[in-house]
């Protein structure tokens, strides 16, 4: 079991961030959520700032536009997760380089595929 933070969480069932929440829970992972627009999603609190998220976090999975990543980088470096997953459409060479320079694995992959193929852990 890992502690996973979804950045860009959504309550909309058609969004991949929501699908990731459900699948992470199905696979027994403890999930925290971060997004600016909601108080709760499926009964879970939604945090607005990384500093408010209960620690430690093993994996961060991103569902935000790369242009918005710079707002999270410093807090991610402070959080020091083992890895950050850049889901399709979130890739950022600059962010990945900054994370890797601090020993945080930056992985371009799909959280859903990693879970389904038993490569998430």
UniProtKB/TrEMBL annotation:
Pfam families: CoA_binding_2 (PF13380). Residues 1-90 form the CoA-binding domain. It comes from the Bacteria. InterPro entries: CoA-bd, NAD(P)-bd_dom_sf. SUPFAM superfamilies: NAD(P)-binding Rossmann-fold domains (SSF51735). This is CoA-binding domain-containing protein. The gene is yccU.
């Amino acid at each position: 079991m890992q502690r996973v933070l979804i950045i860009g969480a959504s309550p909309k069932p058609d969004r991949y961030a929501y699908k990731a929440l459900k699948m992470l829970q199905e696979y027994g992972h403890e999930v925290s959520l971060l997004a600016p627009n909601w108080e709760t999603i499926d009964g879970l609190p939604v945090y607005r700032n990384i500093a408010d998220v209960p620690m430690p976090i093993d994996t961060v999975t991103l569902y935000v536009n790369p242009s918005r990543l710079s707002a999270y980088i410093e807090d991610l470096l402070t959080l020091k997760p083992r890895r950050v997953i850049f889901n399709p459409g979130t890739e950022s060479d600059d962010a990945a380089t900054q994370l890797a320079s601090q020993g945080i694995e930056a992985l371009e992959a799909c959280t859903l595929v990693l879970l389904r193929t038993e490569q998430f852990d």
